């Protein structure tokens, strides 16, 4: 029994450290006052953020509100399922008519989706992603940074983990450009497979929803910080290593994003996320994650959390799919990932 006590104490310490880092990540994500500060510094940033709100908040979510509150209610009045004053015998006589009304009403609603919502969704998705990059660029510039930041780099004697790897700098010239493109392609594929993993976990009985929430939190946190890591020229291996080593912080950072959409229908959730996502991108841009994590970890010397392979399943599945392609393409992809 005495041999178990040190293990229990160590687990308690690690749990406490994980909860503190999670809370720090959650707090950093909620620092939305940084958005106001950055928008006051950059007129272009204010315009882009306003455009995102106008497209996704006013037009997209407004269209959903009109559909549910006006269109469907009007169709329900014009094409009712039944008449309240109709007797049971009359109801049986008009059963076919009411059934036709129901079919026609559903058909008209589907037309509304096909010719308005689905094109609007695709248009919003493409344009919003272009604007997100502009928002991140203007936000990064408003922070007074225009290139790789040396301020965020930790000194060698203040590393976040004892087993940190040395990441080689990206070579200059055409080779560095090709490596950067390869990393972006691999990152896009990895996150795509991770999204499928997140979607699949939602169908697991009992624990599926909780697991889905955690994975979604990690996914949105990675999306938010990826813009900043692109500007600071962090390689893909360095990003994944830092993310998986500090999994508790990023789970906390992504939680407000997920809480805002988790209990809504898919289209409504997308609309809210499209409005809120640029705000979290800007909070990630203004967050000194390395310093926050380092400060908290100094309080728990000798009791590090350890690395969680967040992207292991997605990476394994991606490599399995890539193995179906010619060996030269696979080796080139693996080289890009390593570099």
Overview of this protein structure:
The structure is a single chain. It is globular, with a radius of gyration of 25 Å. Helix 1 (4-29) crosses helix 9 (247-259), helix 6 (174-201) runs antiparallel to helix 7 and helix 7 crosses helix 10 (266-285). The chain has one domain. The chain has 13 helices and no strands. The protein has 339 residues and is mainly α. It has helices at 4-29, 33-41, 43-78, 88-93, 95-142, 174-201, 208-231, 236-245, 247-259, 266-285, 289-297, 312-322, 327-338. It is found in: Membrane.
Beta-strand share of residues: under 5%
Q: Give the SSE order as H and E letters.
A: HHHHHHHHHHHHH
Rg (C-alpha, Å): 25 Å
Please report the distance between the alpha carbons of the first and last residues: 48 Å
The dominant shape is globular
Structural class: mainly alpha
> Average pLDDT, to the nearest integer?
80
Low-confidence stretches: 146-168
The total domain count is 1
Oligomer: single chain
> Which range best describes the helical content: under 10%, 10-25%, 25-40%, 40-55%, 55-70% or over 70%?
over 70%
Give the helix tally: 13
Number of strands: 0
Largest sheet: none
InterPro entries: CysZ/EI24
Organism: Gossypium darwinii
Membrane topology: Multi-pass membrane protein
Transmembrane segments: 53-78, 98-118, 174-196, 270-287, 308-325
